[in-house]
Amino acid sequence: MKSFTRELWFETKKRYELIDITGKVEEALAASGIKEGLLLCNAMHITASVFVNDDERGLHADFLDWLEKVAPHEPVSSYRHNVGEDNADAHIKRQIFGREVVIAITAGKLHFGPWERVFYGEFDGRRRKRVLVKIIGE
Amino acid sequence: MKSFTRELWFETKKRYELIDITGKVEEALAASGIKEGLLLCNAMHITASVFVNDDERGLHADFLDWLEKVAPHEPVSSYRHNVGEDNADAHIKRQIFGREVVIAITAGKLHFGPWERVFYGEFDGRRRKRVLVKIIGE
Amino acid sequence: MKSFTRELWFETKKRYELIDITGKVEEALAASGIKEGLLLCNAMHITASVFVNDDERGLHADFLDWLEKVAPHEPVSSYRHNVGEDNADAHIKRQIFGREVVIAITAGKLHFGPWERVFYGEFDGRRRKRVLVKIIGE
Description:
The structure is a homotrimer of 138-residue chains. Chain A has helices spanning 22-32, 57-70, 88-97; strands at residues 2-11, 17-20, 37-43, 48-53, 100-106, 109-110, 117-122, 128-137. With 138 residues, the first copy, chain A, is an alpha+beta fold.
């Protein structure tokens, strides 16, 4: 069994951003030399998500609008976590969209359907954040 | 380390369906010959989910009612994704219910608690869709 | 490839509880002797979650308040599952917060970011429940 580990760094400019990281995940897979196995990709911060969906700008706007509607940032004081913090909503948004994805590796590729892409979802940005890629297989 | 890969195909009749796929996942596991390891089961489409819950008709109706309440299909025009599309809500429903499950394999079986069953959740059906089963172990 | 399996038992006193199980997961990892691989930790019951987030009391109160707002327990009769049951909301809460986490194992440790902790989220407690830890690697 082989294993491979890589941390990806992101510096976001806005509080909320959805970033396509499929290319970076594929680079890690190529560097691993693993042909059959499982790839874990997870946010290393608890106000961010890694998820698989479509690379379509209108949909991403819908995602962020919807998350804001169900778990609004304001009023900041409505959350008990927000004592010296203002990111309770970001923790909740991350819970909804999830921490991680596990992707099958088949014949050296991400075994994806036609529109699957990997995204980093930042809900409390404007500072450096990490995503982990861990691959095991042969 | 062994690995095993199988794609399952579904043709749903309705826009929304929750289909018990536990038997098909168990068939893939038996075919793999793997006794100890991890099994990944994921939707290969971005408007569908794979999840673990109870096989109870009333609960499934509650799931679909609840998803419709928090991420309604109508009005279709309320979503920016819906330009030539009408499935933005299905992308959001899939984000809530998740893309995938990872299941432990112990002694050649799905290592499940008493009521755990695997479901394919379709939120934009009436066409052919795929689910992936990937198993690694020994 | 090595594999390791351990079930953890919990008896919760309240209907809803969020319990930090990071120490128990680390004990299982140490017992496994596995240095590189993947660790799956999942609820074995379908009204409970395992998730990764922050160990902060105010945030946990926010999580439970928010889940109650979006998927309320009352009125019990509003759910079709609740015929001889009263836990349909707990199934929905679990769907939102997820069944499982997959954690990278690197150099014999949970490969975590600065604030990541593992929690068992109970939404229909006051009886014995199980969490599974499965580790594969080398």
